[in-house]
Amino acid sequence: MTKIDTQEKLRAIYGDPIEIAVAKCLTALDPHCKHFIGLAPFAVISSADANGDADVSPRGDGPGFIKVLDDNTIVMPDRPGNNRVDTLSNIIENPKVGMLFFVPGVNETLRLNGLAEISTDPELLVLFADTPKPPITAIKVTVEEAFLHCAKSLMRSKLWDAGTQIDRKSLPTLGKMIKDQARVNIPIGTQEESDQHFAQSIAERG
What we know:
- By secondary structure, this protein is α+β, with helices and mostly antiparallel strands.
- It folds into 2 domains: 7-157, Pnp Oxidase, Chain A, CATH 2.30.110; 166-205, no CATH class.
- Helix content is 31%, strand content 27%.
- The radius of gyration is 20 Å and the shape is globular.
């Protein structure tokens, strides 16, 4: 297989982007983008450290858990977790992030790129005061690009189709998989007790 290692080689295969794919890219949030974010209970955020080592993290809560402050600013809560803080560590070294928003039942997604910062500003944290688990910090993103992404990938994957959902028993429990992967002595007796421990831990972290 020939490696594609230049922009020229890439465009020779794919050609130029269609006009609408370029024109739809906005430099600020319009009413449609704001409405989409307001309906989204789930998003992923990508980041990279100073060396370019990349990471992606899922984030979720009730619809509209990510707040729109103005045309170029959104705020996302960062609640108690396992304290790996991979995304936050990356933002300190490299503020560039990408985000992808999902709305259940909607095959289109919203893509967003911008510059992030971590804040403990009370005026930002109070935006999430009505939630059971208050955030420790807030991630404020200054939007540089935003655009709606077509439905093809979710249609092909049938992500929202209940008929494609697997039997959960097709995978081991989370407790079983983590015990196998971590290879550490978790002081829990039976597999059932291990599963209960992880379920309780997730519930407590909210």
